């Protein structure tokens, strides 16, 4: 299993990014979470197989139609297991 921590920059708040990401995560059957940060970025952790994580990362680089992603910082972190994918309160 692979788990990544991601910070997404751009016009990614107020455009349905987190809720669309939850649908993508459910479709790809990954676990983790996503939330807005006060600086205007979106933070997420995604865990699954390499192929599942890569599929979610590909979507994250594009985002929803109303958004504009200017960059994403991805770091591999230790897998934690768990179940489901949640939209968390803003951090």
Question: Which terms would index this structure?
Answer:
acylphosphatase activity; Acylphosphatase-like_dom_sf; alpha+beta; 91 residues; five-stranded mixed beta sheet; EC 3.6.1.7; Acylphosphatase-like_dom; Alpha-Beta Plaits; acylphosphatase; single chain; 40% strand; 2 helices
Task: Summarize the structure in words.
The protein is an alpha+beta fold and 91 residues long. It has a single domain, classed as Alpha-Beta Plaits (2-Layer Sandwich). It is 27% helix and 40% strand. The protein is built from two helices and five strands, in the order E-H-E-E-H-E-E. It has helices at 17-28, 50-62; strands at residues 2-11, 31-36, 42-48, 68-77, 85-87. It has a five-stranded mixed beta sheet with strand order 4-1-3-2-5, with helices on one face. A hairpin with a 5-residue loop joins strand 2 and strand 3 (42-48). Helix 1 runs antiparallel to helix 2 (50-62). It is globular and about 30 Å long. The model has no long low-confidence stretch (mean pLDDT 97).
């Amino acid at each position: 299993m692979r788990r990544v921590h991601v910070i997404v920059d751009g016009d990614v708040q107020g455009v349905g990014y987190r809720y669309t990401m939850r649908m993508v995560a459910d479709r790809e059957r990954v676990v983790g979470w996503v939330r807005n940060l006060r600086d205007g970025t979106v933070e997420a952790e995604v865990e699954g197989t390499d192929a599942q994580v890569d599929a979610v990362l590909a979507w994250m680089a594009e985002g929803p139609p109303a958004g504009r992603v200017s960059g994403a910082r991805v770091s591999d972190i230790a897998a934690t297991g768990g179940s489901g994918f949640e939209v968390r309160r803003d951090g």
